[in-house]
Design brief:
alpha+beta; 7-stranded mixed beta sheet; 34% strand; single chain; elongated
Length: 418
């Protein structure tokens, strides 16, 4: 369909959609589209589009796509644009964006980056610290991207540095996330030579533990400015003005494309696929790497012949920690002599894993510069101590880190391992 927009008119579009600018000039989150330019809107995204001059658009809506004319004062984009220009002119170096789920945090982060680039401030970095809905890197990672060209979605970016958290639930890894955000912040300035760093945060903000987490994050990174989506949260964070930090409130969009839990799961699946599906399977010797995150690989190796005799079943691989034995057996068997193992080895616990348990486990590989890369275990040759991992990482890792996530063949989270 063809639509005509007069200068300063707004429309709202819900994907999937393809927009072709036949005449004129439009703006989406600070990215300028001129005659002949095309914008692709993902099925999970919605945007307000502003005509910078009289324009003619050719719009192709996919299944579920919708085009709407906002009611007066319904869309905050004009306010956002004015605000972004003002804050970019202040030449700040560290900005953090806070707000609940589906409030527009990521859109504000992108808008700020685009406005900075439009004013010649480059490169700019965005740190994506949302482990559950990661857009720059894969799920369970926090990542930073170096931005030199305008975008409308962070999924257009390639991560420059990734750090592995190992779970999609931030509440269990607050200190780990904060430490890694600080590391990425420092490396954005020192290694990537960025002039502005914008920290996009997760939507976990609606209880006292979440607020405490965000307070600790602010204390550690000491931003120049905090942008808060929603007045109820602004009233909580404005106290940081006492520390000389600028705190701003932005309105949240009244109409947004909210995502169900299942849709969020599918978005994560897309990211797992993006980083893993086309990656080759590589092999690494377990004796040459440090393995973290699974007790099976963290203890002292045990002679499997002797343990097999004690256990009464063939044992493929085993290690011992001060209080426990961890071992791999060919198949689950009620005849495993657990009490006999405890007595013979002087331990309180015995945990056994059935061969093949490792397939589909989500891991990270750490390089010599302490950057992490996603991987998916395809199998382990216990006799030769070789681990086979699907990964795009081309070097030899110094560490392999296990997560609490297993993926199906369709790259959906099957379970969170306890």
């Amino acid at each position: 369909m063809k639509i005509t927009l007069q200068k300063n008119n707004l429309i709202r579009i819900f994907g999937p959609a393809l927009i072709n600018v036949a005449e004129g000039k439009i703006c989406i989150l600070g990215k300028i589209y001129g005659k002949g330019d095309k914008a692709i809107i993902h099925r999970m995204r919605s945007y307000a589009l502003l005509a910078l001059e009289d324009s003619v658009l050719e719009v192709n809506l996919g299944s579920g796509g919708v085009l709407q004319e906002p009611e007066p004062n319904e869309e905050p984009l004009p306010e956002w644009l004015d605000f972004a220009e003002k804050i970019i002119n202040e030449q700040l170096r560290k900005i953090i964006v806070l707000g609940p789920i589906d409030s527009g945090k990521s859109s504000v982060a992108v808008l700020l980056a685009n406005m900075a680039l439009n004013k010649g401030i480059k490169p700019v970095a965005i740190i994506d610290s949302d482990v559950g809905q990661a857009d720059i890197g894969p799920p369970a990672f926090i990542s930073v991207a170096k931005i030199e060209n305008t975008i409308i979605w962070m999924r257009e970016l390639k991560p420059a540095i990734m750090k592995f958290i190992g779970d999609i639930r931030p509440q269990y890894y607050v200190d780990k996330i904060i430490n890694n955000v600080l590391d990425l912040l420092n490396r954005s300035f020192e290694k990537l030579k960025c002039k502005l760093v914008i920290i996009d945060t997760d939507g976990w903000i609606q209880d006292m533990y979440a607020i405490e987490y965000k307070f600790k994050l602010i204390e550690r990174i000491s931003p120049d400015a905090i942008i808060v989506l929603g007045k109820e949260y602004y009233n909580i964070f404005k106290r940081f003005e006492k520390l000389g930090i600028k705190v701003y409130e932005l309105k949240t969009p009244l109409v947004v494309k909210t995502r169900s839990r299942d849709e969020r799961r599918k978005l994560r699946s897309e990211q797992y696929k993006k980083f893993l599906e086309e990656s080759p399977v590589r092999r690494y010797e377990l004796d040459n790497v440090v393995v973290l995150g699974n007790p099976l690989f963290e203890g002292e190796e045990v002679d499997v012949a002797q343990l097999s005799s004690t256990a009464g079943v063939p044992v493929l691989y085993a290690t011992r920690l001060p209080d426990s034995i961890h071992m791999v057996v060919q198949q689950g068997n009620r005849n495993i002599q657990l009490d006999k193992i405890k007595e013979s080895y002087g331990v309180n616990k015995v945990r056994y894993y059935v061969q093949g348990f490792e397939k589909g486990l989500y891991v990270a590989l750490t390089d010599q510069d302490d950057s992490d890369y996603p991987g998916l275990i395809e199998g382990i040759d216990y006799a030769n101590k070789i681990i086979h991992i699907r990964t795009s990482f081309e070097g030899y890792p110094k560490i392999i880190k296990f997560s609490r996530i297993r993926l199906t063949k369709e790259f959906l989270e099957q379970l969170i391992i306890e």
